[in-house]
Amino acid sequence: MTSASTPPATPPPTVQWYDLSTPAGRFTLSPVKPERDLPMIHRWMNDPEVDRYWELAGPPERTEEYVRRQIGLPHTEPMLARLSGRPIGYWELYRAAEDPLSEHYPARPDDLGVHLLIGEGDCRGLGLGSLMLRVLADAVQSRSPRRIVAEPDERNLASIRAFTAAGFTAAASLELPEKRATLMLRVPAPRREAD
């Protein structure tokens, strides 16, 4: 119960969970629940293909510290991605203008940032990343004409291809503290005027 003097909580950056239809099945994004999800995220972070770019392999405590720090950030929402009910990946949706990334590109106040990994090896290389990105971006931009941004490591060609296939454009090369990245932008389609 809140008192009249208690300010309202800041809404999460995504405002809602996502439950979207795709040709590959229902794609859902819902907030990470550490007590349920940490063992699985830890396993994914220790996969060499994931660790190559996320660099979070190690003991369970390392994964827990990272995920709980993300949960604690007011502008970021860690999400679990499921396809047809099966957990397959970890995503972070965030308000990019409030993130350190905004110091490296001309951020707009409503830019939505996205980080993601596909943790299940048998789900990689099938085009699911680009499919899920496209469906999510379509849903976000149909509600609000905002840009969606990402900054994959420039060596991660599979990720850059997935973003490109989902309608993102490589806009710049960024020298970030932890990596050299490709700034990927998906700009909403112009709205048509009613005749």
Describe this structure in words.
- This protein has 195 residues and is α+β, with helices and mostly antiparallel strands.
- The chain is built from 5 helices and 8 strands.
- Strand 1 and strand 2 (25-31) form a beta hairpin.
- The N and C termini lie far apart (49 Å).
- Mean pLDDT is 89; it is low at 1-16.
How much helix is in the residues?
Answer: 25-40%
Main pleated-sheet profile: 8 strands, mixed
List unreliable stretches of 5+ residues: 1-16
H/E series, N to C? EEHHHEEEHEHEE
Question: Biggest sheet, strands in spatial order?
Answer: 1-2-3-4-5-6-8-7
Q: What tags apply to this protein structure?
A:
5 helices, 195 residues, alpha+beta, 28% strand, 8 strands
